[in-house]
Amino acid sequence: MLELLDTIDSLVWGPAMIALLLGSHLFFTFKTGFIQRKLPKAIKLSLSSDPEGKGDISHFGALATALAATIGTGSIVGVATAILAGGPGAVLWMWVTGLFGIATKYAETYAAVKYRVRDHNGFMLGGAMYIWERAFRLNGAGELDPSPGGRTPWWAKLGAVAFATFAAVAAIGTGSAVQASAMTGIITANAPGVPAWAVGIAIVVLVSAVIFGGVGAISKVCEKLVPFMAVAYAGGCVVILVLNGPLLGEAVGLIFECAFTPKAAFGGAVGSGLMMALQFGCARGLFSNESGLGSAPIVASAASTRNPAQQALVAMTGTFWSTVVICALTGVVLVSTMLANPGIAADILANPTVYTGAQLASEAFAKIPYLGTPILVFGMVAFSYTTILGWSYYGNRCVTYLFGRYAIRPYQAVYVVVAFFGAIGVGDVVWTVSDIGNALMAVPNIVVVLALSGMVARETRHYVWDGNLDEADKTPIPQLDGK
User: Fold this and answer.
1) How far apart are CA 275 and CA 453, in angstroms?
2) Spatial contact of 60 and 49, defined as CB atoms under 8 Å apart
3) Which domains are delineated in the chain?
4) Which terminus of the chain faces fewer neighbouring Cβ atoms within 10 Å, N or C?
C-alpha cells in the first residue's frame, strides 16, 4: 500500500504539478502588477478592524486562523523532511514558492470573497466551491448571473464538488492526523514516559473544546496563540543562527548551489538534484503556506471587509510570514546546524522513520543550552494544535457545501477521532496521503482562479492601484436556503 501511495504521490507532484504551481505564482505576480509591493500596506491592514465591513470575524482573526492552519508541521518538520529528501536546495525552492505564491494567495482570496454567500444563520460561506458555483452561473437568457436564481453549468458544479470533496478529505489528513502524529512524536521523544494514547486523548479533549464553538471560537483562540508562538519560535531560530554564525555564509551558499546542481551534502549523507530539490521544495512549500491550495480563502471569506481587495491583501501576508520568514529561518537553521555537526545527518538517515524530520529539528534546537528543547516542544505542540483547529474549519465549510449543515457535527466527530488515531501512530502513510490530497484540491482551485484572472486583475487595478481601497463593495451577498 505504501509503495502504491508513493507512486501516486510522485505522479501528482511530478513536473506537471510543479509547472502548474510555479507557473500560476509567476502569472499572478505579473497579472496583479506585482502585488507583493503592497506587503507593508497589507501588514498594516491586517492589524486593523473595520466596523463598516461585511463579515463575521476581524481581518486579524481570519489571518490568525489561516496562519494557525499553515504555521504548523510544514514550517518545521516539513522543512526538515524537504532537506533530507531533496537536499539543501529544497529550501530555496520553498522560499521561491512563498515569494511568488503571495500573488496566488491574493488572487484566490479575492475571488473567494467576491463570490461568498451567507448560510441560513447569515454567516459567511466561501471558497473555491462557491467560486465555481457562482462565477459561471447563467440566467434564462444565457448571460452570466451569479445570483441564486441562475443555473450552474454541470462542469462548474463538478469543479465545485471536486474541490470540496478533496478538501474535506485533505483536512482529515493534513489538519488532523498529520498534526496529531507530529505532536505525539515531539512529546514522546522528549518525555519517553508519556504514552501515545494519553497524548491522543489530550488532543481530542483540547480540540473538541474549541472546534464545536464554530469559527468565532476558533479565531479567538488563534488570535491569542499564533503571535506568541510565532515570536517564540522565531526567537529560538535567531539564537541558533547566532551560535552558528561562522557557518551561515557556507549554509546559504550550499542552499543555492544544491538548488541548481547535483551535489552530495553533509559528508555524502544527503544527496540532491534539481528535480528532487524542486519536487520536495515545491511540495513542502505548498504544505507550509498553502498558496494555490484554496484553504485559506475559506476562512478569509468570513472576514469583515469593505471589499475583496482588502481581505485579499491581508490574506497574502500569511504566505509571507509562513514561508518567506518562518520556513526560511528554519531552513538556514537546519542546514547550518548539520554543517556544524556532520554526524547528525548520518545518524538520522541510518534509521529513517516518519519522525526523522522532527528528530532533525530536535537536534538543531538542542544546541541552545537549557531553553532550546522546551522552545521547540512548545512551538511544535502549539503550531500543530492550532493547525488542527484551523483545518477543522476548512473541512467544516466543505462538508456544509456538500451535504448541508446537518453533516457538520458528524464530520467534527470523525475529525477528532482521526486525530486520536494519528496520535497513536499511522506512520508514513499519513504524510503521503496528505501530499496527494493537497495536490488534488489544488488543481480545481487553481483552474478556477486562473479562469477569473482577468476579473481579479481588473478589479485589483481599481481598488489597489487606483487608490480606492476604502471603497465599499455594494454588491449584495446572497443567502442560501436550506444550507
Assistant:
1) 29
2) yes
3) 2-465 (1.20.1740)
4) N
Beta carbons within 8 Å of 175's beta carbon, 6+ residues apart: 69, 387, 388, 390, 391, 392, 394, 395, 415
**Closest to 10 in 3D by CA, of 323, 439, 445, 358:** 439
Backbone angles phi, psi at 138, to 5 degrees: -115, 145
> Mapping DSSP to helix (H, G, I), strand (E, B) and coil, where does residue 479 land?
strand
Residues of 420-441 as b/e, b for ≥16 C-beta within 10 angstroms? bebbbbbeeebbbbbbbbbbbb
| Alpha-carbon gap, residue 268 to 272, rounded angstroms | 10
CA nearest 180: which of 168, 196, 193? 196
- Scanning the structure block, which residue is given the C-alpha cell 462565477? 135
Q: Would you give per-residue pLDDT tens digits along the chain (483 residues)?
A: 767 877 887 777 777 887 888 899 999 999 999 999 999 999 998 887 777 778 778 888 888 878 877 776 667 777 877 787 778 888 888 888 889 999 999 999 999 999 999 887 788 889 999 999 999 988 766 677 777 777 889 999 999 999 999 998 888 877 888 788 878 877 887 777 888 889 889 989 989 888 887 777 888 888 888 888 888 888 888 888 898 889 899 999 988 888 887 765 554 445 556 667 776 777 677 667 788 889 889 989 988 899 999 999 999 998 898 888 888 888 898 888 888 877 776 666 655 554 466 677 777 777 777 777 787 788 778 888 888 888 888 998 999 999 988 888 999 999 998 888 888 876 566 667 777 877 888 899 999 999 999 999 999 999 999 999 999 888 888 887 654
Q: How far apart are CA 109 and CA 128, in angstroms?
A: 9
Contact indicator for 111, 296 with CB cutoff of 8 Å: no
Nearest C-alpha neighbor of 40 from the set 102, 116, 84, 110:
102
Cα-Cα end-to-end distance for the chain: 38
Q: Which DSSP state fits 368?
A: S
Q: What CA–CA distances, in Å, run from 214 to 175, 190, 210, 368, 390? A: 16, 33, 8, 39, 11
Dihedrals phi, psi of 236, to nearest 5 degrees: -60, -40
In 3D, which of 58, 40, 42 has the Cα closest to residue 50?
Answer: 58
